[in-house]
Design brief:
This protein is 55% helix and 11% strand.
């Protein structure tokens, strides 16, 4: 990792490209500029790194149909993948879900997609998982932060309530219960050993 420079840390617009090679679709993440010179635009599907706005959209979509009871389940329907997250690729959606004829065609395509759509969906799923992993890591970091620092963060950043579902309070409650239980057990052990 020698010579890592801050000036080179800007988000790359294109994460990878999908190209048909020997009958199979392959995704390439390196040497993209060189590959784009070899293949024409019609032979390539670009996969884009999400912008901050797209990351927020991914989180919103994931939280819409999620269940945060005992077992966390995050689901994104195929229709949402196609219609909402297809912008993460250069594959153009030329169908309108609001037109009944197009909606039926979308359903047919989703029930029996071709190899390219499966590959694009796979790459978008990877992006979704990366974004959600980072989101969960951020929530866990906040939950592990002492409450006095969390209060300071609220004052400095502002306590803005978003329209999205907020899972932080649920996670906080579970974390606090665990911490209290652990403290009680530690105190009991100290009393026994003392």
């Amino acid at each position: 990792m020698a010579n890592m420079k801050f000036s080179e840390r800007k988000r790359k617009e294109v994460k990878g490209i999908i190209v048909k090679v020997a009958g199979d679709y392959k995704t390439y993440y390196n040497n993209i500029d060189e590959l784009l010179q070899i293949y024409s635009e019609d032979e390539v599907v670009k996969i884009f790194n999400p912008t901050e706005e797209q990351k927020e959209k991914i989180i919103t979509l994931a939280l819409q149909d999620s269940n945060f009871d005992d077992k966390t389940e995050i689901k994104i329907s195929d229709r949402n993948f196609l219609l909402e997250l297809l912008e993460l690729s250069s594959l153009e959606c030329d169908l309108d879900v609001n037109i009944e004829k197009d909606a039926k065609q979308i359903d047919k395509i989703l029930s029996d997609p071709d190899a390219l759509l499966i590959k694009v969906q796979s790459e978008i799923t990877k992006i979704v998982m990366e974004v959600l992993y980072q989101f969960i890591e951020n929530v866990n970091t906040v939950n592990e932060t002492p409450s006095s620092i969390q209060d300071l963060q609220k004052v400095l950043i502002g306590n803005k309530k978003s329209e999205k579902k907020d899972i932080t309070p649920v996670a906080k409650k579970k974390a606090k219960k665990t911490v209290k239980k652990d403290k009680v057990e530690v105190v009991k052990e100290e009393v026994k050993n003392g």
